[in-house]
Write a structure and sequence with these properties.
alpha+beta, Protein Transport Mog1p, Chain A, 2 domains, three-stranded antiparallel sheet, 4 helices, 10 strands, globular
Length: 220
């Protein structure tokens, strides 16, 4: 009888140890499982911090607006130029003037305005083969994409407009050249043809200044 009780006690003690070990193992597993998600949470926080930093606006210095190369400033002033009592046109103040025969030219860096006056007994044809159009193209370096059409310069006056692109002269300092946008307005009146030729680097935005100069042309 004592032997049986002893065996039962030993068996009960062993069962108690197994239970304790099992409980201890479950506790350890539970602790490990609860601490494992900490890494993703940390990564998420880092991602949030990076996103917040990226969303912060970048500060930029304040100051006056810089005009891209070739753009005529909106604040540009103009002065009148007259040729022997035949015509009058406005040109940008401060541009360098040069005269070559019957052509007067005003330039500033790679921007330019040239007016050529010739005698004519009839209005020019709206064609690439007309004399004033061929004369303009002959002065250009590597002209391409030329087209001619009639356009209004005022509500009551329509003229021939030649558009094309060309190369600039080579810069004496840098040895480089730029591609230019060209527009030439051909005016006719009283036995004269005047060609107003404007050019600037092809990416410049001179629509308004060029329109102003074309509209300012008047026969005297």
């Amino acid at each position: 009888m004592k032997t049986t009780r002893l065996i039962l006690s030993v068996a009960q003690a062993g069962l108690l140890c197994v239970t304790l070990v099992a409980c201890s193992g479950k506790s350890s597993e539970t602790t490990t499982a609860s601490s494992a998600p900490a890494a993703p949470a940390t990564q998420a926080a880092m991602n949030n911090a990076q996103a917040t930093a990226a969303a912060q606006p970048t500060s930029r210095p304040t100051g006056s607006e810089n005009n891209p190369t070739g753009d005529i400033p909106d604040t540009q002033k103009y002065i009148g130029y007259s040729a022997t009592g035949v015509y009058r046109v406005e040109v940008p103040e401060g541009w360098a003037r040069s005269v070559n025969g019957n052509t007067v030219t005003f330039t500033n860096n790679r921007d330019g305005e040239a007016i050529t006056l010739v005698n004519a007994s009839a209005p020019p044809a709206v064609s690439l083969s007309s004399a004033p159009v061929k004369a303009v193209l002959a002065t250009a370096h590597v002209p391409s994409g030329a087209n001619v059409r009639i356009v209004p310069v005022t509500k009551t006056r329509r003229v021939i407009l030649l558009s094309f692109s060309s190369d600039s002269d080579v810069n004496a300092v840098t040895g480089t050249k730029a591609r230019l946008l060209n527009k030439a307005y051909v005016f006719y009146d009283k036995g004269h043809i005047a060609t107003l030729h404007l050019w600037a680097p092809i990416k410049s935005d001179n629509g308004d200044p060029w329109e102003h100069m074309a509209q300012s042309f008047k026969w005297l």
